[in-house]
């Protein structure tokens, strides 16, 4: 029986939205106050959705301990209290929350093998959220 | 097609244990959820149904009927209950949130004549939930 399990995590990080391929004026016009050269920060809420068959013996899609320890080590500790712009993940891309979602999805897809990664959803603020499912259409 | 979601809350206790596992295996796999005295959660259930909007009523579903079915089939059966001991499906199945979502789907599906069931979502805590869309 296939089911979907979602777990929420939180971390805080700073970023500045600025693209070297645009002039300073264009950057200011496209990114507005997010282009402030000193950067700014957010409390991000991450939702990781995994999918799989519910194993008959355990009643679980995957053991939460495995999911938690993977996400804590490879995502939360990696991004928490960091400046996203200086991380290697964003050496070639602007650390928008769209790109952050894609990075997190790729980290999970490459390293987490206890269940299949269905979707990553990231809340940047209570009013903004972004979803990425590896380029697939969303389930709902 | 329009989707409508109705929420409900219930509180219940449970513990995770499989007789086929040794005591050590149960402890290793289920951790503190294996405590034989049980523990409890405030569950939040979200039931999503889908359908065409009826032109005359503007409704996808008669909400009162949906609420009645949810109350009768789920809330009255599970609220303030010990899931392992008092809910029939869990005598021989571990009441994980995954199995709870499947069980709630199976309880609602045959009773919902008013609209098509799309998704059952069960929150065990605000930071953990399971979605079930029926057998695929």
Brief synopsis:
The complex is a heterodimer of chains A (140) and B (136). With 140 residues, chain A is of the alpha+beta class.
What pattern of helices and strands is seen along the backbone of chain B?
A: EHEHEHHEE
Shape of chain B: elongated
CATH homologous superfamily of chain A - what is it? Answer: 6-pyruvoyl tetrahydropterin synthase/QueD
Fraction of residues in H or I helices of chain A: 25-40%
Number of domains of chain B: 1
**What's the Cα radius of gyration of chain A?**
17 Å
Number of strands of chain B: 5
Enter the CATH topology name of chain B.
Tetrahydropterin Synthase, Chain A
The separation of the N and C termini of chain B measures 20 Å
Judging from the principal axes of the Cα atoms, what is the shape of chain A? elongated
> How many helix segments of chain B?
4
The CA-CA distance between the termini of chain A, in Å, is 19 Å
Question: Average pLDDT of chain B, to the nearest integer?
Answer: 93
Q: What are the low-pLDDT stretches of chain B, counting only 5+ consecutive residues below 50?
A: none
The parts of chain A where pLDDT drops under 50 for at least 5 residues are none
CATH class of chain B: Alpha Beta
Q: Which architecture of chain B does the CATH hierarchy give at level 2?
A: 2-Layer Sandwich
Helical/strand content category of chain A = alpha+beta
